[in-house]
Write a structure and sequence with these properties.
Elements: H1 2-37, H2 46-64, E1 67-69, E2 82-89, E3 98-103, E4 106-108, E5 111-114, E6 116-122
Parallel strand pairs: 2-6
Antiparallel strand pairs: 1-4, 3-6, 4-5
Helix pairs in contact: 1-2
Length: 131
């Protein structure tokens, strides 16, 4: 009985790990589609329309699988779910506020699949020249 329970538990974990690996791979595809659509002259024509349709379909499928995007712009930086790739100085905004998303982050099944890469506000001189 204990053996059966352990095997069942291991099987569920292997399935979760396999699905997580597939979802991570899809995130790279989504990123590449977004990059392609953000290029100059890539917003018009049948190819761009096809890319938008594929992107929309992939995002819908990922959402149906329980993937959720990590919130970013306008909220305070949280090192548990965000990765700061740059800091900009802006006296009009609160220190530590996210002002730009460089790469989307995602959660799945209460786990962080990928942190969001963000630009964070540094609101004035903190005295630390190394930041």
């Amino acid at each position: 009985d204990n053996f059966r329970k352990r095997v069942l538990k291991e099987r569920v974990e292997w399935e979760r790990q396999g699905k997580e690996k597939v979802l991570r791979g899809f995130l790279e595809i989504i990123d590449n589609l977004r990059r392609g659509l953000n290029q100059p002259d890539a917003t018009i024509g049948p190819l761009a329309e096809g890319m938008r349709m594929v992107l929309s379909q992939a995002e819908f499928w990922l959402q149906q699988e329980g993937l959720e995007r990590v919130p970013t712009v306008g909220i305070p930086f949280d090192p548990a779910i965000h990765e700061a790739v740059a800091r900009i100085e802006d006296l009009s905004k609160v220190d530590g506020t996210i002002v730009e998303e460089v790469r989307a982050g995602y959660r799945w099944a209460d786990r962080l699949l990928r942190p969001a890469s963000v630009v964070v506000v540094k609101s004035g001189d903190t005295g630390d020249k190394n930041v």
